[in-house]
Design goal:
Largest sheet: 2 strands, antiparallel
Helix content: 55-70%
Order of helices and strands: HHEEHHHHEEHHEEHHHEEH
CATH architecture of the largest domain: Up-down Bundle
Number of helices: 12
Number of domains: 2
Strand content: 5-15%
CATH topology of the largest domain: Four Helix Bundle (Hemerythrin (Met), subunit A)
CATH class of the largest domain: Mainly Alpha
Structural class: mainly alpha
Distance between the termini: 32 Å
Radius of gyration: 21 Å
Length: about 325
């Protein structure tokens, strides 16, 4: 993993890139069912599912290096043969189910985030001399982690295109991971905005970050309503906005103008809790249920991915507005 990295990224900007690439990676699996992920060759004896424990183990490795550094054991940092360690891990995990592999993937990143939170800014950029004489930094390890995600995302997208893999109702465990990842990506980008600008600086037309959060919340509440109604047996949802979706957006934004940041934030958090409660009621079989929506007939799986896409779109818009440095095109708006 040899590459140059930008040294001018602030700590929040670095975290935003880490979260953004993870959301992009998980979005690469939208519409892939377990049969395609677990039964399709990617290369050699690797199945698509094997990507997950592979990435998880590298995140665990980065976390262990951070721990050694904080213990003052810099001399114990290992010199690795990447090809050999990848093959060793693959032999250990190639019989894992998709769900088992995703568990390793999620645990690895959770540990890395926890390790980063313990680091001081000085530790993030302090030069580390390896046994080979080469210098590195924790910042470089974090860049390696997010570029690792990006490389595999591009790999999966190319594999899908080259093999004409059809879209279907995807994996429930990956869907839940995607929803969490898109929220973290949004929040880490939002965290790069100074506190005193979150309620006054326009970041989406005339809307402030507070307005955008209220907008996401109002739509996500409709997402919760959709899941709940379909599980209760409804087969059609009434449009919340009639004939003019922009008027609905503006009316709801106006209705929140008198609210404080704390009110909007608490509503945002509560609505997300309700969304995950609704997701927890779903089984894999439920995701294939079809029903009529304002945007046509779709499955519950497609319905849930709408809200992931919606938050990703606003995250991309926010990255562009804030001009976050070193942002690749795939994390910027497509329009």
């Amino acid at each position: 993993m040899s590459f140059s990295i930008p040294t001018d990224l602030t700590r929040p900007q670095l975290m935003a890139r880490l979260a953004g690439e993870r959301a992009y990676l998980l979005a690469s699996f939208i519409g892939l069912d377990e049969a395609a992920i677990s039964g399709s060759p990617l290369y050699h004896d690797w199945q698509v599912k094997d990507i997950f424990p592979h990435i998880g183990r590298w995140d665990e490795m980065f976390t262990s290096w951070i721990s050694l550094l904080q213990q003052g054991r810099e001399a114990d940092l290992p010199i690795l043969d990447e090809t050999q360690i990848n093959q060793t891990w693959h032999e250990q995990h190639k019989r894992y189910t998709l769900e088992q592999g995703v568990a390793v993937f999620l645990k690895g990143r959770g540990g890395l985030w926890a390790g980063l939170e313990r680091l001081t800014d000085e530790e993030l950029d302090r030069p580390i001399t390896l046994a080979t004489g080469r210098e590195t930094t924790v910042r470089r390890w974090i860049a390696a982690a997010y570029r690792h995600d990006a490389e595999h995302a591009q790999e999966i997208r190319a594999w899908r295109k080259n093999n004409n893999i059809p879209r279907t109702s995807g994996s429930l465990c990956l869907l839940r991971a995607l929803i969490r990842a898109t929220r973290k990506a949004f929040l880490t980008v939002a965290a790069t905005l100074p506190e005193d600008e979150k309620s006054r600086r326009p970041v989406c037309g005339t809307w402030t970050l507070q307005d955008v959060i209220g907008h996401i919340t109002d739509w996500e509440a409709y997402g919760v309503e959709g899941i709940t109604k379909v599980l209760a047996g409804d087969t059609a949802l009434v449009s919340p906005y009639g004939a003019d979706i922009q008027a609905w957006n503006e009316a709801h934004a106006a209705a929140r103008q008198g609210q404080s940041w704390e009110q909007v934030w608490n509503d945002y958090q509560t609505t997300r809790q309700n969304f995950f409660y609704a997701l927890d009621q779903l089984t894999q079989a439920d995701l294939a249920r079809t029903f009529h929506t304002p945007w046509g007939t779709m499955t519950l799986y497609q319905w849930v991915t709408i809200w992931a896409h919606h938050e990703q779109e606003h995250t991309a818009d926010l990255r562009r507005e804030l001009a976050l440095p070193d942002t690749p095109d795939h994390l910027l708006p497509r329009h």
